[in-house]
Fold:
Amino acid sequence: MAGTGITVTYDPGFTDDVHIFQTSQFYTASGSSQSGLHCEYFNNQTLYGTPVYTGIDTRINFSWGSGGPAISGFPADHFSVRWTGVIRPQETGSHEFIIRSDDGCRLYLDNQLIIDGWKDQGATTYRKTRTLESGTEHTIKVEFYENEGEAVIQMGWHLPDPTNSLAIQHASEADAAILCVGFDSPLEGEGFDRTFALPDDQDSLINAVA
Ligand SMILES: [Ca+2]
Structure:
């Protein structure tokens, strides 16, 4: 706790994938003010036939473990989901699209397949960058299937700030800076080892603030 007369400033600095999955903004249709994505849940692996459930998901951030979606009668394995909607960039620049899935995933931007991870796999992260302009609107389609075992699907998009400029500015104006760095569960876990170096430019942020 800070004492009186002490001002604490905060900036997330390096933005981790979890934060992006939790905060990415989507709209259901072109011109619509309704947040979220149309979703279609299928009780087969191939998006075949009539979906068992349709609705709106605010965002795509699901980790079902060895279970499945909480839909009555829905299977825990051998299912698939399609999400559709639009995104509206607030700034112009090179935006990053991130998708993490177990098992298969596909990401379409403006009806173009930009990430193809349509295969059986443990939780795997795919990234792609595309230059988008402020004030434009782009269609998004995400397809996912679960074979067996664990099921994860997370997707987000953002405009990265590779220089962490705001965090560095805040630190330069402060008498003391506290940096919280390290690893989290998507970066280190059962079945996959982490690197020895700090991931995602955390070293460069430390050097810039020090
Ligand atoms: Ca699986």
